[in-house]
Design goal:
Layout (H helix, E strand, L loop, with lengths): L1 H6 L13 E5 L6 E2 L2 E2 L3 H15 L3 E5 L16 H11 L3 E4 L7 H7 L6 E4 L6 H4 L3 H8 L4 E4 L21 E3 L1 H14 L6 E5 L8 H10 L2 E4 L1 H10 L14 H14 L2 E3 L3 E5 L8 E5 L8 E5 L1 H13 L2 E5 L12 H15 L4 E4 L3 H9 L7 E2 L4 H7 L5 H4 L4
Helix pairs in contact: 2-3, 8-10, 8-14, 9-10, 11-12, 12-13
The protein binds 3-phosphoglyceric acid (3PG) and magnesium ion.
The site of magnesium ion (MG) has 2 residues, from loops.
């Protein structure tokens, strides 16, 4: 199955790299604190591609954005501090280049270096042409090398000069990290083993409406947790007290339920909840059936009966796709539901009965908190791109790599 997937995209296996200069779009938009990299996952993911290119005798020119400088030079959003981390992880010198890509001097700098050299260009978004997908900027990026490798799935939902435009200028292929993302994602929604169980949490239905609409038509079971579940509970006439919910879109929630019903997708809502007077550490909590949530209660996590229900359905699944925490997991003890279900998914994945893929923003943090991220079949490094993919949308950066 994996081969069929890969064959629809060009990869590093489809180009001759030796002696070439390869322009690689990476996503070095990593979380940073006080000028230091706080989570190097995205850097780590792209190392195999870079090693492979170096071993094959290529010169490597890296392009990435960092933050949202909106077309201006914002020194606090320079990629320079990231270059140090990349160099340490790669175990080879990384030369940071601040020269403007358009004036030809960057291309000159590239020409003057030896094979095996890695150059990192300054933040692509310092130039207004990046987000506008300006063909002139794409052409300037193209002049930096002979082949384009996109290894930044997490930026592939953006049609920018370095993610999309350049793919029409140079021969364009997927790097190994991009390839791994595509293989993992296609195997959960396009050609999955069924039944497929989608577990969706987080706060807002409104931000995930397209995603829910796409999923109910594709998966057999949809488990809903997080504050998002409160809106569905309220739409079904349940008391939710002072819980976080989008009370203005109850009809929308009912519409999702109706569409799920029509598509034969079973929707699992919480049957019990952990409630408290407020969201804070050390607050007094109660566990109640959802029918018994009081007027002053806030629902802050799924309860043990819901965990048991989800576990039972997970056992019958073959494929699991997960986005969003199931409770207010940042504050104990409201992490319990998410952790318990994450452990159950990890166990079933280890036992080989399911393939489990997770991704999108808080999800990875929640799985790391539960200590199970390595036990999932695949954890996407993407935030917004993962969500857009769950929405069933074509990602411009991926489309440009189609064979
Ligand atoms: C991300 O962090 O999700 C990607 O790097 C894309 O960043 P963006 O949302 O600023 O385009
Ligand atoms: Mg984003």
């Amino acid at each position: 199955m994996a081969n069929r997937v890969v064959s629809s995209f060009r990869t590093l296996d489809d180009v001759d790299i030796s002696g070439k200069t390869v322009v690689v779009r990476v996503d070095l938009n990593v979380p940073a604190k006080n000028g230091a990299v706080a989570d190097a996952t995205r850097i780590e993911r792209t190392i195999p591609t870079l090693r492979e290119l170096i071993e094959k005798g290529a010169k490597v020119v890296l392009l990435s954005h960092f933050g949202r400088p909106k077309g201006k030079v914002v020194p606090a959003m320079s990629l320079e501090p990231v270059a140090g981390t990349l160099q340490a992880m790669l175990g080879r010198p990384v030369t940071f280049v601040t020269t403007d890509w358009r004036d030809g001097r960057a291309a000159e700098a590239v020409r003057d270096t030896a094979p095996g050299t890695v150059l990192l260009m300054e933040n692509t978004r310092f130039h207004p042409g990046e987000e506008m997908n300006d063909p002139e900027l794409a052409a300037a990026f193209g002049r930096l090398g002979d082949v384009y490798v996109n290894d930044a799935f997490s930026a592939a939902h953006r049609a920018h000069a370095s993610t999309e435009g350049i793919a029409h200028v140079l021969p364009a292929v997927a790097g190994r990290a991009m390839q791994a993302e595509l293989e993992a994602l296609v195997l959960v929604l396009q050609t999955p083993d069924r039944p497929v169980f989608a577990l969706i949490g987080g706060k807002k239905i409104s931000s995930k409406l397209d995603l829910l609409g796409n999923l109910v038509a594709k998966v057999q079971v949809l488990g809903i947790g997080g504050a998002m579940a409160n809106t569905f509970l309220a739409a079904g006439g349940r008391p939710i007290g002072k819980s976080l919910a989008e009370r203005e879109i109850l009809d929308t929630a009912r519409d999702v339920m109706r569409r799920a019903n029509e598509a034969g997708c079973e929707v699992l809502l919480p049957v019990d909840a952990v409630v408290a007077a407020e969201l804070s550490a050390g607050v007094e909590t109660r566990t109640v059936p959802v029918e018994e949530v009081g007027p002053d209660d806030m629902i802050l996590d799924i309860g043990p009966a819901t965990v048991t229900l989800l576990e039972a359905r997970l056992k019958a699944a073959r494929t699991v796709v997960w986005n969003g925490p199931l409770g207010a997991f940042e504050i104990r003890p409201f992490d319990r539901g998410t952790v318990a279900v994450a452990l159950a998914v990890a166990k079933l994945t280890d036992a080989g009965t399911i393939r489990a893929v997770a991704g999108g923003g808080d999800t990875v943090a929640a799985l790391n908190h539960a200590g199970v991220a390595e036990h999932f079949s695949y954890v996407s490094a993407a935030g917004g791109a993962f969500l857009e993919w769950l929405e069933g949308r074509a990602l411009p950066g991926v489309e440009a790599l189609r064979a």
